[in-house]
Each structure stands twice: as structure tokens, then as C-alpha cells.
Amino acid sequence: MRTILPFTILAAILSGANAIHLLGRVNPSNQELTWPGTGISFSFTGTTATIHLNTITGTNSAELTTDGIATIIPNINTTSITTPANLTHGTHTITLRKRSEALYGSLTIGNITTDGTLIPDAPPSRKIEVIGDSITVGYGLDGTLPCTNSAALENNPKTYAALSAQALKADYSIIAWSGIGLTRNYVSTTPDPSPVMPVRWTRYGANDADDSYTFPKAAVPDVVVINLGTNDFSYLGVREPLNATVYTDAMVEFVGVVNKHYPDATFFLVTSPMLSDAYPEGQAQKYTQTSALKAAIEVLGGMEVKVHLVEWPTQGSDVGCDYHPNAATHAVEAEVLADAIAEVMSW
Which residues form the Carbohydrate esterase 2 N-terminal domain (predicted)? Predict the structure, then answer.
């Protein structure tokens, strides 16, 4: 039996292609949301709208924001997401963002239907790309130690990356994966063979083939933030401490590669709030990473790359799952980062 859509809904589908704004690094050919913080936004005039999902893999947590009011969906297990039932007739703005990372699953966006009319959604002109690890993901952000991380406890919209971009009125893209490093991944009894960030960064979707990202002109950022090193410097007696020169050289190389694709971008290299000079005793990991980043910045400055250091203090004792930053720490980090970017960029 054929399904005949009401004319208003059919018209919305046909006219909505240019009204939908893909958020973050999302391949328009399949509209799969993999990276944390990816999503869609649109505006419509009417009383209801539905985001249809073509495929769902794994477990995904998302945030649906309707006219500035956020609703958390801890586990998406239906084939569509509909706006709240109490909307009055008028113009409404809708944003759906993935809270959890690709490690847990992905979503593929289908049609957007409404009883009214989709209208053009103008994205911000400022663009920021944030590259990082579990801190940038929002790992365990909604948990309180002791807790076990899950898709439901990850909260990317509350990370420093999302909050600083919002404060700066900028569009943002987050390329982050828990446990990832610049030179080596999280310490374990057997070496982690999964890709390090300079490799994974070349992918369109987080699980796509290497070198699949096409660097579309419309997505080129004004600012690139890099927060990598927590996993590189961790060793916990299982492996040798990282040679700081190796980290410096790798950062110079990675920033150089990114800069070739974004030649006009300004870079901000961020110290880790999870590294400390007090633990492990005698290692001064915070000082070592900060010094290594300063050395990288000196080299990159000689290469005429616009790059700056942002120093975050070591976090306090109130933490999320597995000692990761909680919402309060992310809020403080966001303010420091946003102030630094605003000063340099005159935003």
C-alpha cells in the first residue's frame, strides 16, 4: 500500500534541503553523526517537526534544543525524534546534537518533516575546530566519581569546547576520541594499536577510511584548538615516560599538516587539566607538557604559523568518571579559552 504524505509535510521535505544546517564534521552524502557534538539545526514555522533517523548503531545520547530549551535523550532507541507537543503556532528553532562519542554508536539523519514550513537557517560566520581526547569528548562529565562512563554520562554540549564556542557566537566542529593521543594512546598492559589523532583527524566520519575527509571550503575554521597530551604522558608504571622532545616534534608536525589545509587559521594549544606536577611523584608532568608546548610554539612561530598557548590549571578533587573533568571544571576551562580566543581574534 502506498503512503501519501499530506501536502504540507511533502512540501517541507522538498523545500527543506537548503534549510538544514549540518553541525560539525558530517558528510552530507550520508548525514551520519559520528563525532561528538555533531548534529543538525533548522527553523520552521508551524507547531511540530520530526527528525527521522535512517539508521542507529550502538548506543547514542543526544540533546534536543527547542527554542533554547534543552531536552536530554539518554538513549535513542526510536526511528524519529519529535519536538515537544506543547509548541504554539509560530517560528521555532531546533538543534539536535550528539552528546556521546563514536565509540558508542552513530546516527544517520533522514528527512525532516513539519506541519508547517522549513525556513533558512543562517549559521554563524565564525568557525572553530577543536581536536582532542576524552576531555574534549565530555567523558563521564555527568557522572560523579566513582562511576562507570557510558553514552548517557557523556555530555559534549557541556564541554569547554561547546561552551567557549557558544560564548564566542561561533559554529564549532569537534574531532575527539577517548583515549587518543598525539604520539601514543592511553596506557594499557598491551599497547593500543588504534590510530593516533594525526591519523584519525583525516577521516570524514570517525570510523571512515583514513584520508576520507575532503576539507570543504565552507567548513574551514578560523580557529583550531588542540587539546592532546593527557594520554601521551600517562604511563602508570606500565611503560616508559614520554620523551618531551618526541611530543614537541609531533605537535609541530601535526600543526603543520593542519595548517596546510587551513592556512589562515589561528591555533590555540591547550595544557591538560588532568596532568599534575604532584602525581606521579617526581615526574612534573604538567610542567613537562607546558614546556614542550612552548617549545613547539617557538618552532611553529618560525614557520609563520599563528599559534598561542592556553594554560589550564590542574583540576580539583570534584571530578567525573575516571577522574575526568566535571561540568564545573569544563565551565571554568571554557571561560579561560574563550577569553584567550576573543583577545587574539578580536571577537
Answer: 23-120
Please give the CATH topology (third level) of the domain spanning 127-345.
Rossmann fold (3.40.50)
This prediction has a pTM of: 0.94
Q: Locate 158 and state its grid cell.
A: 557541556
Q: Tell me whether residue 227 is exposed, middle or buried, using C-beta atoms within 10 angstroms of its C-beta: 0 to 12, 13 to 18, 19 or more.
A: buried
Q: What is the pLDDT of residues 122-156, one digit of tens each?
A: 889 999 999 999 999 999 999 999 999 999 999 99
Domain ranges of the chain: 7-119, 127-345
DSSP category for residue 169: T
- Sign of the C-alpha dihedral computed for residues 255, 260, 262 and 264 taken in this order: positive
If you average pLDDT over every residue of the chain, what do you get? 93
- 312 Cβ contact list (under 8 Å, min separation 6): 270, 271, 272, 273, 333, 336
CA–CA gap between residue 105 and residue 96 (Å, rounded): 16
Cis peptide before 280 (omega within 30 of 0): yes
Give pLDDT tens digits for 162-189.
999 999 999 999 999 999 999 999 988 8
Would you say 162 and 207 are in contact if contact means Cβ atoms under 8 Å apart?
no
What residues are paired with 174 via a beta bridge?
Answer: 130
What is the full DSSP assignment across 210-254?
TT-----GGG--SEEEEE--HHHH--TTTSPPPPHHHHHHHHHHH
> Which fold is adopted by the domain 7-119?
Jelly Rolls (2.60.120)
| pLDDT score of 282 | 58
DSSP 218: G
Q: Is the pLDDT of residue 6 over 70?
A: no
